[in-house]
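Researcher: Quick one. two chains, 1220 residues in total.
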Amino acid sequence: MGNKREIKSSLKRNSVEEETYVNNEVESDEDDELLNVINGEDEDSSDDEANDGSENELSSEEDAGGETDEDSDENDADSEENDQESEDDDEENDSDEENESGEDDEENKNSEDDEENKSSEDDEEASKFSECSIKKTESYNGVKKLKNKNKLVPSKKLPAVTKSDEYEEFDSSDEEDIRNTVGNIPMNWYDEYKHLGYDWDGNKIIRPETGDQLDAFLKRMEDPDFWRTVKDPQTGQNVVLSEEDINLIKRIKAQKIPDETFDEYAPWIEWFTSEVEQMPLRKFPEHKRSFLPSKHEARKVSKLVHALKMGWIKTMAEAEKLRAKKEPQFYMLWQTDDKAEEMRRIYNHISAPKRLLPGHAESYNPPPEYLFDEKELKQWNKLKNAPWKRKLHFIPEKYDSLRKVPAYPRFIKERFLRCLDLYLCPRAIKMKLNIEPESLVPKLPSPKDLQPFPTVLAIEYKGHTDMVRSISTDKTGQYLLSGSDDCTIKIWEVNTGRCLKTIKTDSVVRSVEWCPNAALSLVLVASGQEVMLINPNVGDFLVNSKTDAVLQEVPKSDVVVPDRVRTTIQWSEPDSEQHQRGVRLILKHFKDVSQVTWHGKGDYFATVMPDGQNRSVLISQISRRRSQLPFTKSKGLVQYVLFHPTKPFLFVATQRHVRIYDLVKQTLLKKLLTNSKWISCMAIHPLGDNLLVGTYDRKMLWFDLDLSTKPYQTLRLHGTAVRGVAFHKHYPLFASGSDDRSLIVSHGMVYNDLLQNPLIVPLKRLQDHEAFNDFGIFGVVFHPLQPWVFSSGADGTIKLYNN
Amino acid sequence: MQGSSEGQLQIRLITKQQIHAVPDVPLSVPQAIDTKSLNELVNQLLRESNPDQLKSVEFDFLAIGELLRVPLIEHLQERNVSTETTVEVEYIERTPAPEPKDSLLHDDWVCGIESSDKWILTGCYDNSVNIWTTHGKIVTSLKEHKNIVKAVSWIDKTDAGKGFISVSHDLTGIIWTYEAGTDSVTPKAILRGHERGIDTVGISPNSSRIATGGWDTNLKLWSTSLEDDGSEHIHKKSRSSNTVLTKTPLNTLKGHKEGISAVNWIDNYVVSTVSMDHTIKFWDAELCGIKNEIIGQKAYLSSSWSPLNNTLLASSADRHIRLYDPRSTEGSLCKTTFTSHTLWVSSVTWSNYDSNLFLSGGYDSAVKMWDTRSPKAPLYNLQGHQGQVLKVDWSNRKYMVSGGSDNSVHIFKNKHV
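Model:
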């Protein structure tokens, strides 16, 4: 190969020379043809070829040693010529000139001039060319090769010869092809030409003359090697296949391994077995590292173990478990579905409200009812100056097809207006709380579980002709006392509704109360400026007579009544006619008495004169027939007073506040802030710790006296002023009556446990009274023993509700 | 009875009245058959079996122990009874409707009534005790009491000659003698001992004991004997020519917390009381102790004991009448609730001849005649009162008598005699 490179380089260097050579060759080819013609008809095409080749062959032979041909008699003449030529190449150019013809001479002279310049190189080149030619001859003429071999072996003068030997060993078909330099192209490209390609010298390889049918037949008949003669498409020469080639082909045809020497039945040697061999396969000992654990691997394993420990990687089982545990995971394509995507540019961006989708009227081909008729058009036009009043901001138009719709002239303007709207009306996030109304209502027990409480109207007590302002029951619940604006008090039998007694008074009865002392048959009646103690003469006649007897004897007292008291109140005995009616004592006050109330023991009672200024509250004692003015200063318009059921406390309600006084210590205990405009009435829980205040401004206030001076609960159950409130003595009930004619019964459980707040549950609204002069219910009283409630109304009736 | 589109029911007609017996065969009737059609059916069957019978009889029908008031299928469904099996329908002769007979006008409310065979005794809010004949003629009016007369009672209902008792809110009761037919009525003894008004009085079946109860919560037992039994000295009444005995109670039984509203003798030794304190108590009159107690929900207003079926009817301060069987040991003592009144039922009384019939009067001015087997609807509404009915009485089986706040006593004649 190194030689080849050399050749190429030399070719480059002497490109001009080569051309000249080519010219030479062409000319010489022509000469050859001429020679062939001269040589006669005997020579076949193969001979001609052989002639062509023989030039080189001979030259190579000459190279090998300049020895004479011995083998071919046929090519004598040619060989002689060739010999000469080869001599030209090999030997001095001068000698060439002498042997060759005149034309040749001229040519050679030109070449000589060139060659002379580079004479040193010429030697080498010559040798190389010879080498190439040797190879080529070998390829297409195996037989000759062998002969040549025999010839070449003895002569080892030139290195070129040894080289050719080398090539013989590695004979290959590739190198044969090299003879034709056109390369591996379809040979039919040269069909139109005379030549088949070019040889290494650049000479045309002339297509060998193909003999006619007769020649072919003769050849077949005569040539014993005809069967092994094949045509080389590259060169168009006939090649006689050698014996080896034939064998090769035969083996391939028989699908045997082409290499004859390969023994396919050679005994099998098991090199790598599981059995431990006595001797190592390799002759060097095992490396030390093959006996030591790999540090690299150890490092890798420790990393894996660490990762497993830390849970960075999972074992197969763990991963399987996790996968089984995990729900199928879905993820949001966007951050959320319901929230707008956060814009980094605008914090808390509120997207613009969407425009309404176009309706039918916006259609290019709206149904006819959407098109304006004349009236609508007129209306539309009329609102030119107030376009915002128009129902539509455009006139619906009808077109046959969409392509006939013209450009919308107001488009830009409307876009602008929209942008203006968005700009001028800043958007804000409105925080909205969705609270179920039910969740605001406190959890209260069902009224069903709070039985018994009055629910049904049972008995009506009819008889009064005017508003019944006040009612009261006796201690056993057998009788009911009522005082009315018709200047009478009546005593009723509770169970039947029978009016047992009617006692006339001189003035409107504002307040009545039955004496809580069972040993006294007395009722307190406030009528105008008088407060009367009346013996109703019902029930136990012994008690009645005893009461009379007690009141008969006037206790002697040497205490001087202060002027202030004397001017306020005068105790007097009733006249006989009054006595007949049952009146036992009369207390004449200096102002109208609006309310009376007994102390729990039934000896003291308090009277209220709202107009009395600092003398508006008076406490009187029956047994000593003495009155006291507990207050020296007026704290306001006194509305209502109450005694504490067990302690010596007095509750005084002015318009806005309730004050609690300790009567023994004569101090103000507490001042309850009602936060209302006008207190109307009060009731105290039988245990004395809770106070219920009704006000004219529709509220009821529940005060837990232990808890605070502010209302524990404010009940707004009534629509109008609350005029009467009452607690039941035994059942956890309270009731309130108001001007809206409704009596509301509520559950008011007070627990003994101080930590537990009272439980207040409105239970029942009873609305049977009729309105009269905008008044509804005045008095509310519970039956002392049964869960029944009485209400007295402005309509002159008293109603009993039972459970 | 064939060919109706809806389902058929198998019934068997039975009766305890032999004269009206029909062949005991199952019959197939339409499901929605009502009393009227059943009546026709039974009468037809009766005519078939007994051609002589011409007059058709009105029957009432009982299924599952209750009177049929709605179509049979509804009746059965209400009681969750299977309609697959043969239903036994018992029929009884229908209680004929009472006939209004008379109205006795008083000066004031009438709250105590008791009738004997010929006489009607009334107590009035004008403090008077009146005796009327059953034909509506007043015999006498006695104003001995100083307060409303709450209750009256014959000592022996069959013999008016034994006298009667009246109790009043003047804290006394008076034992009167009465010579039948004449107006010679004389107070013989005054019962003193109550501290509050006496509301009710009861005479023991053997007419020897009196029980009274009132607002002083005590039950007091008295003897009916007019002889001076040495309990108290005789207190002469000035205005009466006769001497009037003042009696004190033999026993005072304390236990009620509120007023006693009705007293009934169960036998000669046991008294039952109902009270406003929501209890019914049974007292042993001999041992003077509480035998039994029933605690109810409401304040009781009246009660009536029937010796025929040994049950107690009680009305409370609501719309219901309750039937108590004090001997029952299982379930609630209240066996049935009769609801038809719209207001308080002030008075109830058993019929003394039929264990199923009773009478009630309420503040809704209605007097109702009930059959215990029909708790939802009364047999008859006896109308006529204008105001509250305060007392009903059926001690004379012929007459149902009621008095009320319209100052009148209405007498209904019982045709079912």
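The mean pLDDT of chain B is 84.
Researcher: Thanks, that's what I needed.
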